[in-house]
Write a structure and sequence with these properties.
2 domains; 4-stranded mixed beta sheet; elongated
């Protein structure tokens, strides 16, 4: 399936998608399932998010779920998006700001209660290793690690998280985290911008 076919379906159904909250729940579910089906016909592995309605409309975000092999398909689709009234098309999940609360599985992550430290990587200096200090870490819990990744992605966006962060580990918050080299997690976006500038010099 090419981009034109996907966007033609989107345009044909844009009014229903815009007003989806007014649909019968079953109709809404079928519409959104068909949207996912159309997206998968274009490229398997892509997903989407639809933002809440605002005075200027809704946002349609296409994601590769962090799979860098699929990034070019996301870019291609959004680059070929038509102008659709009341819709803004976005490539990749975007940063959500600071002071975030992220729930993943049984874990709840509050960025204002977390810290991070860069882990040096002499072999791949352009890739970030990050140690994340948590209030109540659970050793060797895969869901906790995924939740931390989701939290980092919410802070810096899908593209930067997938292309820059190569390694994550977790641990407990020391009594004096700043003295041991940790920084507040809400400073992670600022740190990433510094890291990119340093890498590109």
């Amino acid at each position: 399936m090419n981009t034109e076919k996907f966007w033609q379906w989107f345009v044909d159904n844009s009014e229903a998608l815009t007003m989806q909250d007014d649909l019968d729940p079953k109709e809404k579910e079928q519409l959104l399932e068909e949207l996912q089906h159309q997206l998968e016909d274009y490229c398997q592995g892509l997903t989407y998010e639809i933002g809440e309605p605002t005075p200027t409309g809704r946002t349609f975000t296409v994601s590769a779920e962090g799979d860098t092999d699929l990034f070019r398909y996301v870019v291609e689709l959004i680059d070929n998006a038509p102008d659709v009234d009341w819709w803004t098309m976005v490539a990749f999940r975007q940063p959500q700001g600071k002071d975030l609360r992220v729930v993943f599985d049984k874990f709840r992550f509050e960025t204002k209660k977390m810290y991070f430290m860069q882990l040096e990587n002499e072999v791949e200096p352009d890739i970030l290793g990050v140690r994340v200090a948590l209030p109540d870490p659970v050793d060797d819990d895969e869901d906790q690690l995924v939740g931390v990744y989701v939290t980092l992605e919410a802070l810096i966006g899908e593209f930067d998280c997938a292309t820059l962060v190569g390694y994550i580990e977790t641990g407990a918050i020391p009594e004096q985290p700043e003295l041991e080299g940790y920084m507040p997690m809400d400073d992670f976006p600022k740190f990433v911008e510094w890291f990119k500038r340093k890498r590109d010099q």
